[in-house]
């Protein structure tokens, strides 16, 4: 299809950026995938995947006591930087006595799983299987396992499939093990953020509030096409370890369906606040645009 389009002159004009978008659209028309994307690389950039740009602002846009006993955090990505991981540790520790903790993922497009590992160590009382990650043996032989080796991920290499099971590993016992956990989601909640939501929903540890998520389930990473272009290539799938179902395309359905713009109000009401109090606090928390991390190596 791409060769036919090229022969017809479809890709003969425009900027590198517009060409990348056109190629993405054409590929998506043949095989829709929430992660598949062609992108223009910087001149001379050969090392893929590159590190996220140092100029990115913090992905954590808010982290505080939003009301007495109610902790609130709004990360727009899981960038896994040293500073961000420290900030997650600090947030969970400083709010360890919360009776309710709200994770606002309405504009979180994903990234990695290191943040989840920190959070889940506070929320779970025992080792708990969360999600399954699998890729073909052929893809594994060509690309290798795309996730870092950690205590929370156990990998099994089979003849046809290489699979990993992600676990929550408990840390120190804190009141957060029995705290109410509320997760705000929207159709902009993507990738690793969806995995975060699935893990809490499937285990019964958290309640999802909002609308169905984006449905970007397949993991992978960037690959060079030539010196001017790269492609973010899906190479495997994630699934709910309990049902075996993934969420590619369909997204993760919320437990409480509501307009995402009202999700924080509903969450605060579930946490015990009056409608008037919830509306007032919601007005103080206006989600900013997500911090993009398109070039992270795996989702």
CATH topology tier name: 2-enoyl-CoA Hydratase, Chain A, domain 1
Q: Please state the structural category.
A: alpha/beta
Q: CATH superfamily membership, which one?
A: 2-enoyl-CoA Hydratase, Chain A, domain 1
Largest sheet: 6 strands, antiparallel
Our count of domains comes out at 1
- Classify the beta-strand content into a percent band: 25-35%
User: How large, in whole angstroms, is the Cα Rg?
Assistant: 20 Å
**What is the CATH class name?**
Alpha Beta
As a percent range, the share of helical residues equals 25-40%
Mean pLDDT: 86
What is the overall shape?
globular
Spans of at least 5 consecutive residues with low confidence: 44-55, 293-298
Q: How would you sum up this structure, described in words?
A:
This protein is α/β, with parallel strands linked by helices. It has a single domain, classed as 2-enoyl-CoA Hydratase, Chain A, domain 1. It has helices spanning 2-7, 16-30, 82-94, 114-123, 137-143, 192-202, 263-270, 275-283; strands spanning 37-40, 60-67, 70-75, 100-104, 128-136, 153-157, 161-168, 180-185, 207-210, 219-224, 229-240, 256-257. The strands form two sheets. Strands 1, 5, 6, 7, 10 and 11 form a six-stranded antiparallel β-sheet that branches. Strands 2-3-4-8-9-12 form a six-stranded mixed β-sheet, with helices on both faces. Helix 3 packs parallel to helix 4 and helix 7 crosses helix 8. The longest helix is centred in the N-terminal third of the chain and has 15 residues, at 16-30. The radius of gyration is 20 Å and the shape is globular. The model is unreliable at 44-55 and 293-298 (pLDDT under 50).
């Amino acid at each position: 299809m791409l060769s036919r389009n090229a022969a017809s002159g479809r890709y003969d004009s425009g900027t590198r950026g517009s060409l990348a978008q056109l190629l993405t659209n054409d590929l998506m028309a043949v095989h829709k995938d929430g992660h598949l994307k062609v992108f223009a690389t910087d001149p001379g950039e050969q090392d893929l995947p590159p590190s996220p740009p140092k100029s990115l602002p913090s992905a954590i846009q808010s982290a505080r006591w939003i009301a007495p006993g109610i902790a609130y955090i709004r990360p727009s990505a899981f960038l896994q930087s040293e500073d961000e991981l420290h900030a997650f540790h600090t947030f969970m520790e400083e709010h360890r006595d919360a009776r309710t903790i709200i994770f606002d993922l309405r504009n979180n497009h994903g990234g990695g799983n290191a943040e989840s590992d920190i959070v889940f160590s506070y929320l779970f009382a025992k080792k708990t299987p969360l999600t399954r990650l699998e890729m073909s043996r052929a893809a594994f032989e060509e690309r290798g396992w795309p996730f870092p080796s950690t205590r929370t991920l156990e990998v099994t290499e089979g003849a046809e499939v290489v699979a990993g099971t992600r676990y929550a590993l408990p840390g120190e016992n804190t009141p957060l093990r029995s705290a109410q956990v509320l997760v705000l989601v929207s159709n902009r909640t993507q990738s690793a953020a969806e995995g975060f939501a699935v893990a809490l929903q499937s285990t019964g540890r958290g309640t999802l509030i909002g609308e169905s998520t984006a449905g970007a389930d397949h993991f992978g990473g960037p690959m060079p096409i030539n010196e001017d272009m790269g492609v973010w290539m899906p190479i495997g799938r994630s699934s709910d370890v309990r049902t075996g179902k993934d969420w590619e395309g369909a997204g993760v359905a919320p437990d409480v369906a509501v307009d995402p713009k009202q999700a924080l109000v509903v969450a605060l009401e579930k946490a015990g606040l009056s409608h008037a109090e919830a509306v007032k606090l919601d007005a103080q928390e206006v989600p900013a645009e997500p911090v993009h991390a398109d070039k992270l190596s795996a989702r």
